[in-house]
Amino acid sequence: MDEFATILPVIFPIIAGVALLPVKFNSRKQREIWVFSITILNTIFALYAIYFADGDVVTLIRFSEKLSLTMHIDGLSKVFGTMVSILWVITTVYAFEYMTHEGREDQFFAFFTMTYGVVLGVAFSGNFLTMYLFYEFLTLATLPLVMHAMDNKARHAGKTYIFYMMFGAALAFIGFVFLYCYGDGLEFTYGGVLIPEMIQGNEQTLQIVFLAAFFGFGVKASILPFYRWLPKASVAPTPVTALLHAVAVVKSGIFAIVRLIYFSFGTDYLIGSWAQNVILIATAITIVFGSTLALRMPHIKRRFAYSTISNLSYIVFGAALMTPAGLTAGLLHMIYHAVIKITLFFTAGAILYKTHREYLYEIEGFGRLMPITFLSMALTGISLVGVPPFAGFHSKWALATAAVQSENPMAYFGIVALIISEVLTALYILYVLVRAYFPRKREYPAGYYDHVSDPNAYMTVPLIMLTIITVLIGLFPSNLLSVLEKVATGII
Amino acid sequence: MHQNILLPLLVFFPMVAAILGYAVGRKNKEARNNWACFTTFLVMGGTLLLIGKHARYSLPEFCGLGLSFEGDGLRVVLAVLTSSIWFITTVFTKEYFAHYHNRNRYYFFMLMTLGATLGIFLSADLYTTFIFFEMMSFTSFVLVIHQESDEVIRAAQTYLGIAIIGGLVTLMGLFMMYHMAGTLNIEALAKFMATQEDKSKFYIVGGLILFGFAAKAGLFPLHTWLPEAYPAAPTPATTLLSCILSKAGIFGVLVLSCKIFLFDAGWGNFILILGVITMVTGAILAVFSVNLKRTLACSSMSQIGFVTIAIGMQGLLGSHNALAAGGTILHIVNHSLLKLVLFLSAGVIYLNLGKLNLNEIRGWGKDKPLLKFIFLMGVLGITGIPFWNGYISKTLIHESIVEYIELLHEAGQSTIYMQSVEWIFLFSGGLTLAYMTKIFVAIFVETNPYANTCYPSRKGDYISKVSAVILTLCAVALPIVGIFPYLTADKIADASYHFMGAHAPEHAVQYFAWVNVKGAVVSIAIGGLVYLLFIRKVLMERDHNGNLVYIDRWPKGLNLEDRIYRPVLLIILPFIGAFFARIAGSLTDGFVSILRMAIFNDDSGRVVPPEDRYFSAYTDEETDKIVYGEGFAKSLLMIGVGLAVAMLYILF
Lengths: 492, 652
Fold this sequence. Notes:
The complex is a heterodimer. Chain A is mostly helical. In chain A, 73% of the residues lie in helices and 2% in strands. Chain A has two domains: 1-270, no CATH class; 271-492, no CATH class. In chain A, strand 1 (58-62) and strand 2 form a beta hairpin. Chain A is globular, with a radius of gyration of 22 Å. The mean pLDDT of chain A is 86. In chain B, helix 5 (126-144) runs antiparallel to helix 10, helix 9 runs antiparallel to helix 10 (235-260) and helix 9 crosses helix 12 (292-317). By secondary structure, chain B is mostly helical. Classes of the chains: A mainly alpha, B mainly alpha. At the A-B interface, helix 6, helix 12, helix 16 and helix 17 of A face helix 5, helix 6, helix 22, helix 23 and helix 24 of B.
C-alpha cells in the first residue's frame, strides 16, 4: 500500500495530463472543476506520501544489479515535495483566471498537470538514474508551456530553452556515467556513494566530472554562464514563469545539485577541493551578476527573472559550502525565495493581465489603484530585500553565518557578493515600489489609468495567501529551521 | 528571569494601533486622529511606568535569533523622551494636517515608526536594535515622502538610499561582530570586550556598525541627506526626525562607545573628530541658509555634532567620564525639547503662510507676542545662554574638554590638539547664536518691506488653542530646566550614568560659577561678531528697491551629494557593474559563435552556418511537408539517439 502511495502522486498527474490532452471541454467552468480536482487530489496524495507513508525504497524496474528505477522519500524529498505541492494548488487557481487571456487553455492545463507529476518525480527519485529520467521529462513537459504563445518570440525562447537544457543534461549524463563506474550503486545516500579505493589515483578526473555534472544541473539553476534561457523564457504565461521558472524547474536544478553534492559525490571527498572553489566563485559571480542586470531591466517580469538568477545562486552558494549549516541556509533560502518570487511574478502577472503594461515606466502611480496587488508586492519585495524581520533576512543571515563557519577563504568572497547583491536587490525592488506608489509629477498620456484595478478573487486570493505565508514564515522561522537542520545533517 | 510584559507591549501596541487606526480612518477621520492621540498618550503613560525599574523581556526564537528588550536608566530616559515628544507632535499634527491628503497613510506609518523607535531604545541586543532600526528607516521614509512633489521625492530617495546602504553596512559589521564575539547581547558584548586587551582589531567592525547609525544621526560625511530631507518632510515628521530619529542613530553610537569600546581612547578620538567636523559643518551650513526649516535642520546636525563630541570625550577621559556622560544625555534631551519647540513654531508659520524662505516670511511674527515668546525660549535655549537648558549641557561638554586638557597638562603632554577642539567648540557655539539670531530677527523683529504682497489674509487665530497651550508649556519648561539644573537635569543624568559606565561626580557641578559662565560668554561674543560683521554685511544685500534682503551665498557646486555620491553611485558604479555583467553574460553566446565559426568554415574561409528554420518536423506552409533534414527536430532526435546508445552501452 505504501509503495503505491509513493508512486501515485507521480503517476497520477502524468496520466491525467495525457488524458486531458485530447479532451475538449465545453465550458471553462467544467475544465476548472476537472483540473482543480486533479490538482487538489494529487496534492493530498503527495502530502500523504510525504508524511504518512513509511518511506521505504520502492523499486519500479530493475535493469541490472546497479541500475534500476527507484522511488524513495527522504528528508530532502519531503522539503521539496511539500513546497511544490502547496504552491501548485495556489498557482493553478491563479492560472484559471490568468489563462483566459492567453487562449488554448486545454493544452496548457494538460501539460501543466503533467509537469506536476514530473516535478514530484524528481523530488521522490531514489537514485541518480530515476532523477535523471524525470529531469529530462521535465524539460520536455515544460517546453510546450514556454512556447505557449507560439509567436516568434515564444518559439525563439522555446528553442533557447531546449538547447540549454539538452546541453545541461548531456553534461549531467557524464556525471551519471562516472558515478556508475566509480560508485557503490546509484542510490542516494547521505555522504556520497563513491568507493574510496576507486577514488585513489582518479581525484582530478572525478573533480572535473563533478564540475561537468554540477554545471549540467546548473543550467536549470541558471548559474553563469548558462543563464540565458531564463530571462528569455519570461515570455511564457505568468503562471509558468512564476511556478516553473521561479520554483519547479529551477529548483529541480538546485535539488539535483544538492543530490549531486551531498548524496552522490559526498562532501567528504569534495570539501576543500579546487572544484568546490570553482563553484563557490561561479555562484558568487552569478549572485552579483543577476542583481546588477536586474537593476538595469525596465521590463518588470525580466527584472524579476534576473533577480531569480541571483537568488538561485544564493541557494547553490549555501549548498556549495558543503557543510550542514550551509545546506540548511540554502534550503531555507530556497523555500523563502520560492514563496516570495512566485508572489512577485503573480503581481507582475496581475498588472499585465489587467492593463497589458509590462514596463516600469508604464506603471507609475498604480500602487493606490491596485491596492492588493501592490501591497503583496511591497511586503514580499521587502522580504526579498531582506529587511528584518521579514523572510529574506534570516536566510541571508544564515547563509553568511554558514559561510564564515566553513572557514573556506573563497566563502568570504561569497559574503562580499552577498552584501553587494543586497544593496542591488534593495535598489531594484524599491525602485519598482517607489515608482508605483509615488509617481513623478508629469503629464501622463490619455488613458494611462484606464482599467487599472485589482483583478478578481481568482488572482487576489492566491496573492493574499502567499503574502500571508511569506510574512508568517519570516516571523517564525524556528520550526522550519529545525526541520531543515535535520534534513541537512541527514537525520531525516 | 522575570519577564516584564510592558516592554514588548510598548513596542508592538503602536503597530497594532496603526493597523486599527488605518481601518478606522477609512470611515471616520476625526476618530482616527483621536485614536492616534490616545495611542501615543497610552504609550507615554506606559513609558512613565518604566521609570525606576529594571525591566527585561525576551522573545526567544521570534525572528530567528530572538528579540530581547531591556528597560533601565538611559533606555527609559530615551523611551520617555520619545513617547512624550511623540504625543505632543501627534496632537499638533491634527491641526497641521487639516488640509493634507493621504492623512491615513501618514498616521499609519507614524504609529509604526513610534513602535519601531521604542524597539530601538528598549533593545537589549544589537540584533533587536538592528531589526527595529531597519523598520524605522522604511516606515519613516513614507513620512518624509509624504508631500510627493518632485523635490520631495528626490530628497526622500536620498534618505532611503543612505538608510539602505547604511543599514547593510551595519549589518555586515554586526555579522562580523557576531562571529568574533559569539553574541550580540549588549551586556554580554561589553563583558566580552572587557576581556580583550587589544581593541584595535575591532575598529573595522566598529566602524562598519557605526556607519548605519552615523548615517541616521547625520554625522559627516553621511549628513548629505539631512539638509534636504528635513525641510522636505511635513513639519510634524521633521520634528520627529530631528528630535527622536536622529537620537536613534546616536543610541547606536552610544552602544558602540560605551559598551563595546568603553574607555577606549582611540575610538573616542575617532568619534570626537567626527563630532567636531559635523558640528562645524552643520553650523556653517545653517549660517548660510535662508530657509527657516533648512536652518533648523542644519542646526540639528550641528547639535548632534555637540552630542557626538561628548560621546568622544567619554572615550578619551576613560573612567573620569562623568561630565562627558552627563553632557551627552542632557544634550540629547535638551536638543529634543528645543527642536520640538522650534520646529513646531516653524510649523505654525508654514501652516499660515505656506512659505519658509526668510525673505518671504520676514516680519510675520512681529505682532504675535505668544509665538515670539515661544520661539525666543527655543533660541535662548539652543544658543546656550545661562539660565536656559542648553547652557547646562553645553557647559558639561565644555567642562569635559577642559578637564581633559588639565589631565593632559598634568601628564605633561601637548595640549594644542585639545585646545583647538575647545576653540572650535566655542566658535560653533558662537555660530549657533549667529544663525538663531538671524532667523529670530528676520521673523520676529524686522519689518517686511513687501508684507502686503506676501501675507495672505487669514481669518481667525493663527494657532489653535490646544497647540498654543502645548507649545507654551514646552517653551516654559526650557528655562525651568535651565534655572533648576540640580532638580531636573542632574536627575536625568544620574539615571543614565550606569549605561555609560560612569559614576556620578563627587561634587555637584557649579553651573553658574564664573569659570563655567566664561565659556558661554566667549561663545556669545563670537556669535555677536559673526552676526553683525558677517551675516548683516555679507549675507544681506540691498535689492533694486534699496531694501536689505537675505541672499543665499552658499556656493552651488559645494555639495557632496551632487558632486560625489550621486555620480559615483548612479553613473560610475552601475556602468562598471553592467559592463562586467554584460561580458560575463555573453560568454556562452560568444563561445557558441566561435564554435560555429570553427565548425562551419567552408574552404574559402567563409562562415556558412546552416539555417535551422523549422522548429517542428513540419513546415508552416500550406503543405504539411516533413523537413527532418534541416529542422530543429532532427537535432533533438539525434541527441535522443546518442543518449540511448550510451545507455545501451552502459547496460550491456
